[in-house]
Structure formats: structure tokens, C-alpha cells
Specification:
With about 210 residues, the chain is α+β, with helices and mostly antiparallel strands. It has a single domain (about 1-210), classed as Cytochrome p450 (Orthogonal Bundle), CATH 1.10.630. Helix content is about 40%, strand content about 10%. The protein has helices at about 1-5, 15-45, 45-60, 75-90, 120-125, 165-180, and strands at about 95, 100-105, 105-110, 115, 185-190, 195, 200-205, 210. The strands form four sheets. It has a two-stranded antiparallel sheet. Helix 2 crosses helix 4 (about 75-90) and helix 2 crosses helix 6. The termini are far apart. Belongs to the cytochrome P450 family. GO terms for molecular function: heme binding; iron ion binding; monooxygenase activity; oxidoreductase activity, acting on paired donors, with incorporation or reduction of molecular oxygen. This is Cytochrome P450. InterPro entries: Cyt_P450 (IPR001128), Cyt_P450_CS (IPR017972), Cyt_P450_E_grp-IV (IPR002403), Cyt_P450_sf (IPR036396), Cytochrome_P450_monoxygenase (IPR050121).
Length: about 210
């Protein structure tokens, strides 16, 4: 990626390269790692969900690594990850700049104003997601057609939607499958983590034991 940026016909300034580096570090690493951390924590709290995940994985690829072609045959793993994104929405705050004067919900927003909104608050609003504190992957059946109000906004929406969304889902499914194939049991060792807001909503402390005991 950086080689492409450095050798591009239109040369990037030092500031532009710095911005791209920060974007790659924050978007490609921290959000994915944070989502997987919360997912593993929830599996330690819901052994029935962990067992269902393992059963699905075993049925699809017993004794071999997961392949790209297997992903569509693992709908429940996608549901589990979607629910982790909904409940903990790693991108908890998003900013935009109004490109023109506009009225939103009875509020006048002048051109050039900074707008801050929170996917985390939306995805934990009981008006859109009943019992939002409950980790329930069955909110996301494969045939579900969400409306605007009960959609995930963790990746944004519209023309500025995260360009790496599909890559992120694929990456998380592969990593989650690899963890479950490698270790037979997940067990929480530390106290239950508390959400901590920084760049993402991450666990303040999380220690998980991987093994048979």
C-alpha cells in the first residue's frame, strides 16, 4: 500500500502520507482487533454460542484450514461478528463537515460546521434494537433485510462509507475460525472488562485462557 502511494504519479505530500498511515493503522488494525476481542469475551460468557460456532465450523471444514470459498457457508459466524459490532461498535464516534447549509431534525446546520454523531449510541438504542445489552446473534439471520433505523452504522453509510468493510468482515471471519480451530476452549481469566473509549471502544482489561482446562 505504501509503495503504491510513494510511487503514484501524483506525488503525496508528507502530510498526506502521514494521514494515510494513521488511517491504515487505525482502520485496518485497531477496529478489527477490538471487535475480535469483544467477540471472544462474549463467547466466554455464552458457551452455547461458542458451541454453535464450533459445530458450524466443523460441518464446513473438518480437519482443514478455512478457505475463501467457505465463508458463505458460515452464516452464524458472520451473525456473531455483526452482533459484536452492534453492541460494541468500535468506531464509536464519527465526524463530518457540512458542505452546505442544511436542516436536520429541526436543527439548522450551517455550511462548514463540524457534525459529530455516534454509531455506538444508535446501535444501543432500545427503540431500534430491543434489549440492546443482550448479546444476541440471532438478530441477524441471513435473510434479514434491515431498514435504515435498525442497520449497522459502524462502517458509516453513503459515499463516505468505509471502503474496507468487506475486507474487514472477511478478515474477522478467518481469524475467528482460526482461533476456534486451534484452541478447544475459551475461558475468561480476568474480571469482566469495562468498555473504554479511546480511538475505539475497547476492553479496559481482558485476559482469556485458551485450552482444555
Amino acid at each position: 500500500m505504501f509503495e503504491t502511494l510513494l510511487t503514484a504519479g501524483d506525488q503525496f505530500t508528507r502530510r498526506q502520507l502521514q494521514d494515510e498511515a494513521i488511517t491504515l493503522m487505525n482502520a485496518a488494525i485497531e477496529t478489527t482487533a477490538t471487535t475480535l476481542a469483544w467477540t471472544l469475551y462474549e463467547l466466554t460468557q455464552h458457551p452455547e454460542i461458542e458451541q454453535r460456532l464450533r459445530a458450524e465450523l466443523t460441518a464446513v471444514c473438518t480437519g482443514r484450514p478455512l478457505s475463501q470459498e467457505d465463508l458463505d457457508r458460515l452464516p452464524y459466524s458472520r451473525q456473531v461478528l455483526q452482533e459484536a459490532v452492534r453492541k460494541y461498535g468500535p468506531a464509536w464516534m464519527v465526524t463530518r463537515i457540512a458542505t452546505r447549509d442544511i436542516d436536520l431534525g429541526g436543527h439548522h446546520i450551517p455550511q462548514g460546521a463540524d457534525i459529530v454523531w455516534s454509531p455506538y449510541l444508535h446501535q444501543n438504542d432500545p427503540a431500534h434494537f430491543p434489549e440492546p445489552a443482550t448479546f444476541n446473534p440471532d438478530r441477524w439471520p441471513p435473510d434479514r433485510v434491515p431498514t435504515t433505523r435498525d442497520s449497522l452504522f459502524a462502517f458509516g453509510d453513503g459515499r463516505r462509507k468505509c471502503i474496507g468493510e468487506n475486507f474487514a468482515w472477511t478478515e474477522m471471519q478467518i481469524i475467528l475460525a482460526a482461533i476456534l480451530q486451534t484452541w478447544p476452549r475459551l475461558r475468561l481469566v480476568s474480571r469482566p472488562p469495562r468498555p473504554q473509549t479511546a480511538i475505539t471502544v475497547k476492553p479496559d482489561k481482558l485476559t482469556i485462557s485458551f485450552g482444555s482446562s
